[in-house]
Structure of Chaperone protein EcpD:
Amino acid sequence: MNSYIRIALTSVFCLSMAPMANAQTQVHGTRVIYPAEEREVTVSVDNVGKTPRLLQVWVDDGKENTTAETATAPFLLTPPMSRVEPGKGQSFRLMFTGGDVPQDRESVFWFNVLEIPPKPEAKDAPANYLQFAVRTRLKIFYRPKGLKDDPLSALDTLTWRLVHDGTSLALECTNPSPYNVSVANVRFKGTELPKDSIEQPSGMCTAKSSHRIVLPGHESGSGTLIYNAINDYGGFVEREAPYTR
């Protein structure tokens, strides 16, 4: 008897200007911006492989273990499931259904795509095989009406300082703006931060909040850092900023 195992894996989220690729599917863009004045926005997914894929989509509020059946985020996606042939694409309509979300800042949700490969034909299947269903997640920024300035101007409002975080030092980014700022490649001039030093995988300075990057063994008092912010289109914007202690 064939042994059939299906395992869901969370994909690695790569920040780049190209569409995000994972297994046989590509999601257009690296984030979804949802302006409150829009009735809906469209998220497109392409099947760049050689076999059909069944795609299931849903939105969660940041809990990675949420499934399509348990998701409670205030969004509707149609169609919730679709078969996509090789070389073809599928557009999913994303609609905000209303809810108690802040109106003075952006809110963050997550768009999920579960890619399910076809079961091998009986004549081609080995006695035992392992089949993977791969999940891709990317951020949705729900942007209320009337927010002041623009997302790029938020970079000029960020402040950075070294703080104690347990027995280590951490670089704390404070974001007083109403826009979320995703950062990557944060480093001191002439120094590269270890890749495993980011405390939260998102690398995001949340609107009207703070984010910490742990710096084991770093003792500098003040200076200048360099970082890349990711704009609405997934591109990198490099900035320099002073930091204090």
Notes: The first strand starts at residue 3 and ends at 10. The two ends are 64 Å apart (CA to CA). Residues 7-143 form a domain with the Immunoglobulin-like fold (CATH 2.60.40.10).
